[in-house]
Amino acid sequence: MTEAAQVPEGRAPLAPSARPLPALAAVYRAQLSRARVARVPLLFVATFQSIGIMILMRGVVDGGAGAEANAVVAGSSVLVVAFVALNLLAQYFGQLRTGGLDHYATLPVPAAAVVLGTAAAYASFTVPGVAVTAVTGALLYQLPLGGLWLLLAVVPLAGAALAGLGAALGLLAPRPELATLAGQLGMSAALLLGVLPAGRLPEPLRWTRELLPSSYGVDALAEMFEPAPDAGLVVAHLGVCAGVGVLALALATWAYRRAARA
Fold first, then answer.
1. How do residues 129-157 score in pLDDT, each as one tens digit?
2. Which of 113, 132, 109 is nearest to 49 (CA)?
3. At CA 212, angle to CA 151 and CA 144, rounded to 5?
4. Which of 30, 77, 102, 203 is most buried, with most CB under 10 Å away?
């Protein structure tokens, strides 16, 4: 029996599925190119928004260094990630369900590569804004700049967690309008619970803050502003953030497969 005869009648042979890493790289490059064209103005908005919040919060933390100043600068820096990776990604996947998802579903590309590549592109896009915000905040609050190297870990880990959550919200929402609303509510939660010092939050909101994955990235970065950072605490915060990121991206991958079959 020839190879052609083995194909079920009435069904065209499918192209072999692409390998995960090359597929991931291809999706990443395509999404990064698209984001560079369409999202630059929004990145400026996210950066200026975070810098403006830090200026306004100087009155709350008495304008000086300390644990609260550390939290404000760290939270404002991670807020740039939340604006792009959570808010915009929820909108993107929500709109993709109206027709664009069919295009990806017909390609021989694994679902995980689509979700991971898109999430990585959006998270990478936040790097300049996060760096500008963190440096500006450290200078504004007279905090040491030496600990900002931790952004190399905070941005991808917090970005993965928030991007996975944003993608899941967009893919699970029944309509694009609800996906946009969910993304904006998520970013508002990141603003309220991430930028405000935890000590100034009511007790119920402190517990809610523990459920927000980006808060662990905020706490890790805030710890690096201390005169003698606790390395074990920083690693623990980053570990939680990484674990939540894996779960969030797995949820987004499942939501993608579910939406593609619908």
1. 899 999 999 999 989 999 899 999 998 88
2. 132
3. 30
4. 77
